[in-house]
Amino acid sequence: MASSSSVTNTPVKYEVFISFRGEDTRQGFASHLYAALLRKNVATFMDTELREGDEIKPLLLDAIEKSTISVVIFSNGYASSAWCLDELVKIVECKNRPTNRQILLPVFYHVDPTDVRNQSETYRQALAELEEKYRKKWQNEQRLRENVKKWRAALTEAANISGHDTKTTSNEAQLVEEIVNNILERLDHMFPSEDKGLIVGVERSITEVESLLRMGSEETISIGIWGMGGIGKTTIAKVVFNKIQNQFGSHFFYENVRETSMNLNQRTFTKRKRDNEKVLIVLDDVTLIEQIESLIGEFVDRLGPGSRIIITTRDKEVLQCYGVPFENIYEVKGLSDPEALQLFSWYAFKKTEPDSNHQDLSKRVVEYAQGIPLVLKEFGKFLYHKLDVWESAKDKLDVWASAIDKLQANLLREIQEKLKVSYDELRATYLKDQFLDIACFFKGESTDFVINYLDANYYEFKSTSDLDDLINKCLISITPDKKISVNDVLQVMAWEIVREGSRCRAERSRLWDHKDVSYVLKNNAGTEYVKGICLDMSQRTPFKAKGFGKMHDLRFFKVHDSHYEQNNVKRVLVSKDLSFVFTELRYLCWYGCTLDSLEKNFDTENLVALDMPHSEVTRLWTDNKVYILILIRR
Hints:
Blueprint: E1 14-19, H1 22-25, H2 29-39, E2 44-45, H3 58-65, E3 67-74, H4 82-95, E4 103-108, H5 113-118, H6 122-138, H7 141-159, E5 164-165, H8 172-188, H9 202-213, E6 221-226, H10 233-244, E7 250-254, H11 257-260, H12 267-272, E8 279-286, H13 289-296, E9 308-313, H14 316-322, E10 329-331, H15 337-349, H16 359-369, H17 373-384, H18 393-409, H19 413-424, H20 429-441, H21 447-457, H22 463-472, E11 477-478, E12 484-485, H23 488-501, E13 510-511, H24 514-522, E14 532-536, E15 543-545, E16 556-560, E17 572-574, E18 587-590, E19 609-611, H25 623-633
Parallel strand pairs: 1-2, 1-3, 3-4, 4-5, 6-9, 6-10, 7-8, 8-9, 13-14, 14-16, 15-17, 16-18, 18-19
Antiparallel strand pairs: 11-12
């Protein structure tokens, strides 16, 4: 039977479950088939442990229920195991369930299908011996009769299905190859071909999307699948498309419209579609309303009853402009932690859970990825190649820990390019600047405070509506308690964008890294390009700043201690005669400032917030300036 490891109660899914009689095939045919499926990245469950007792484990029943295909290897001894027969009964039940029916693929391993179907020859003898054994053990004729009846019915039904036979293909290596190819072909019709690994967290989304489609209705219905890049929108759309396409007269899947829209036209659609025909259309990765109009705009009114349009996008505004009702927009959320661990493990270890000595490091990746499948897959693939580099377990752990540290600070190119699309699609430069401000400086801050800052910094624009633009593109979100939330991975993407702006750290628009900030302040190296500085001193050594250089356009300055103790604030030390000119500053936060006054060369005209706990400042500036500041803050 089946498993690379144990199964949890989480909503994960295996693509293949292998049912077999251990004594007959565990060390031979079944293990070869299992290994061949893993090499093809097919998520396979095979019970590698010897079974104890007569009752089938709940874990195995759970694995059967969550598998797409069950491969049953009928060998000479298969019917001599009540465990195998109970397993087969469960597989047949899953095959016949009303929805999400499982595929049963029989393999007749040196047995005649007729003997399995009719329970003749060795199967008749095995069942007779099994019946006698449990008559004595259970001493309950009714229970025995019911179980034997289920076993026989399951054997007959399974053997009536066309499968693979060693009589037809006697070469076992060739037979394994044929079975694997058969499985891959079947999976191709059910799941996207590029996602041959573990399908995790998809079933829940598919169910919700199908409910929005209301397949029994004769209306023409449009729905949207909305979410950030790499969250799984295309995967969900493909699975749904493959599942329901046969219910339509014509079906079209326009993939990656964002990149291919210039090359797409309506000719393919018009050649194959007849007026008033029931049609299924998927437009994947749409970024502009014009893309929808150019592809299907003039034909929407000629679609037949029951037609469906599915649009996937990173931008909610596209769906709203096209007229998709609010209730027909499905937002794709990240995977749960158990699902994320399963997906990461498949790509990092080629099985459904981490090695025991990699558990903690794997959980670090899961915590960082925040349920984004793209990040989990790319991290997994990258770290998988690190496993075979070193001999000792300690060396492997050290290499992994170091690699994870680097990945958390610098995204892989594949991830950066995918996520950056939403940023690139922002319609105005100031919106890009606002996102970089938020990602670098305002994560976790109150929405009102951020809007006040943005209003002062980008006064010619209305920041409230701008936040909506960023939300619609899944770049930020608002928590229930009105705080700004930025996904950790998107924050690292923003850091990368700032770094790409200049190789010289003194010329970067925003500084947050302790090494960069300390370099600029220690060496008085700031330039007019620097618009914001944020430095958390909680885990850092105090240092002495020589000056602010030529940062004449500095608008945000924050030196704080996120874990401060009142009597142990880690400070940025400055000389009393430190020279600086802050004419554009909007926000000043300086924990433990060692200056006694800010009056010299300090212009409060644009200031919206001042926060200086545990400082040595005894005088700020003249009274009228304090009055202005208070008005602004109120």
